[in-house]
Design a protein that fits this description.
Elements (H helix, E strand, L loop, with lengths): L5 H16 L7 H6 L10 H4 L12 H8 L9 H4 L7 H9 L3 H8 L6 H7 L11 H5 L9 H15 L14 E5 L3 H12 L3 E5 L8 H4 L8 H14 L2 E3 L10 H6 L5 E4 L5 E2 L12 E3 H8 L19 E5 L3 H12 L4 E6 L10 H10 L2 E4 L1 E8 L5 E14 L5 E5 L5 E4 L2 E4 L3 E2 L3 H4 L25 E3 L2 H4 L4 H21 L2
Parallel strand pairs: 1-2, 1-4, 2-3, 4-16, 6-14, 7-8, 7-14, 8-9
Antiparallel strand pairs: 5-15, 10-11, 11-12, 11-13
Helix pairs in contact: 1-4, 4-6, 4-10, 6-7, 6-10, 7-10, 8-10, 11-20, 15-16, 16-17
């Protein structure tokens, strides 16, 4: 598959814009539907599979305007209903179509403090773009207006032009709020609560803030400088960030309320405890959770061998178990860390994969080998206790299960062995139990997630929660949606206090 250069794509877009500008009549719906979707400029696979730089390079101005002109400006705006933070999508897209990225980013930032991040990693194809009238009219969801790419364009324009500024903050109220964790849910809460003039402190267990944005999502999908700039925006607003602060060990949640004087606490600690398959051989040297593998590579910069001394297991043949975005991230990172072969093993078919189609396509282009309708039965070791192979079992699909996907059914006697020296388990995460174990009265589910009402209120007075610790491992934008609702509830509660 050829990858046109950014320059050629921008040139073609300029030519098309000139043709449209020469028209004497305004564009009608049929004219907009004839404008082809603009492809995202990307690094060629043969280059990017051995570097850590961002794969998607972003639209140029002409591409962005042309893509935005595809929007029909529907009165009922179904795209907004699909957005967890309810961006005014038609308005910001119209501003880009008119060549006013400054107005576009101002509209976006009314509802989102993380547009550069959401534009890169959120699954727009299943949220705001899924109900897009353009995609429905063309009977192809992939042909919907590329809302996420346009959001990224506006955010990148602001950053690269040096015009960004922190949101305004109202006069100090004397109220104090603590946000546990510093991922997307807590970042959103911190920004929205701080805007109202309340003091906000973020408590982060790691040595760097950002949560899953820095330890989970690889540099080639989300450059860390972008996350760092968003964190600096919070600091510029007056948010205090304390790192190496483990709630439940450094201080308990009741301590924050009863001894430290916080008027409210938001729990956005994520779901960072990895799940394993509980099969023979998972304790062998060379078996990793995707969480540990990606944390070493991302947060601890194991890929930067010239400047980081993070130890990383040397791998030649890697098996990744799972079919979600984390599995794709781990497989693609393994290639960039020097693996000769990377095998992704998933017990259903590609149709049932929860990973974004874009991530699956990128993994294939980069050389990850997909083994579908297969799963690990056991991991085999050598005399030194190191991984030497993995025994797999073939599957077929049966009836749909509770998730709506067809259930994988083992095919007896279909076992076979694949030689590998590393196994990465990427089958999901769950919340760490420390907070619930040290917080009496906090109601949780059987999955270990915290129970909340729709506004993020927990079973404890003045305690709110949101993001992965409530939903289980989900998405950045869903966590932000939780954060916005919780922040609104916190602000309302604080405003009502005497």
């Amino acid at each position: 598959m050829t990858h046109p250069s950014p320059e050629s794509l921008e040139r073609e877009a300029r030519e098309r814009l000139a043709e449209l500008a020469a028209r004497t009549e305004p564009l009608k719906t049929k004219d907009r539907l004839r404008i082809p979707p603009q492809p995202m400029p990307e690094q060629p696979p043969e280059e990017r599979r051995r570097n850590i730089h961002e794969v998607a390079l972003g639209y140029g101005p002409a591409q962005a305007r042309l893509e935005a002109m595809r929007c029909l400006q529907c009165k009922n705006a179904p795209c907004v209903q699909g957005c967890p933070v309810r961006l005014d999508i038609p308005a910001f897209v119209r501003a880009i179509a008119d060549g006013r990225p400054d107005e576009a980013i101002a509209i976006i930032k009314r509802n989102s403090i993380l547009p550069a991040i959401c534009g890169r990693v959120c699954p727009q194809e299943t949220q705001c773009q899924a109900p897009c009238t353009v995609g429905r009219s063309l009977k192809n969801v992939a042909a919907a207006v590329s809302i996420g790419r346009l959001e990224r364009y506006a955010a990148d324009w602001e950053r690269e032009s040096g015009r960004g500024s922190p949101p305004p903050v109202k006069p100090e109220t004397g109220r104090k709020v603590a946000a546990i964790g510093s991922g997307p849910a807590s970042i959103t809460v911190a920004a929205d609560v701080r805007r109202e003039g309340h003091a906000v402190t973020m408590l982060e267990a790691f040595h760097k803030p950002g949560g899953v944005l820095v330890y989970g999502i690889p540099e080639f999908r989300l450059p860390k400088r972008i996350v760092e700039q968003e964190i600096e925006t919070l600091r510029a607003m007056g948010v205090v960030i304390r790192t190496n602060f483990v709630v439940g060990r450094t201080r308990t949640l009741p301590d924050l309320l009863e001894k430290d004087g916080y008027d409210a606490v938001f729990i956005g600690a994520g779901a960072g405890l990895p799940k394993f398959m509980n099969i023979e051989g998972e304790n062998l040297v060379g078996v990793f959770s995707a969480n540990e593998y990606l944390t070493r590579a991302n947060l601890m910069r194991a890929y930067d061998r010239a400047r980081a001394r993070t130890p990383m297991y040397p791998s030649r043949q890697v098996a990744v178990l799972g079919g979600g975005n984390v599995a794709m991230d781990a497989a693609r990172m393994a290639l960039r860390l020097g693996a000769e072969e990377v095998h992704l093993i998933y017990r259903r078919t590609e149709t049932e994969m929860p990973a974004r189609a874009e991530e699956v396509a990128h993994a294939k282009e980069e050389g990850v080998q997909f083994h579908l309708l297969q799963n690990a039965k056991r991991i085999l070791g050598d005399e030194e206790g190191r991984v030497r192979a993995i025994e797999l079992l073939r599957y077929e699909l049966g009836e749909p299960d509770a998730s709506g996907r067809r259930r994988p059914v083992e095919i007896p006697g279909s076992e076979f062995v694949m030689e590998v020296d590393t196994v990465i388990v990427a089958i999901g995460n769950e919340p760490h139990p420390l907070i619930r174990q040290t917080t009496p009265g906090l109601r949780t589910t059987r999955r270990g997630t915290i129970e909340t009402d729709p506004d993020g209120r927990t079973s404890l007075e003045r305690v709110f929660a949101g993001g992965d610790i409530v939903q289980g491992a989900a998405t950045v934008i869903l966590a932000m949606g939780d954060g916005r609702r919780a922040a609104a509830a916190i602000n309302a509660m604080l405003a009502a206090l005497p």
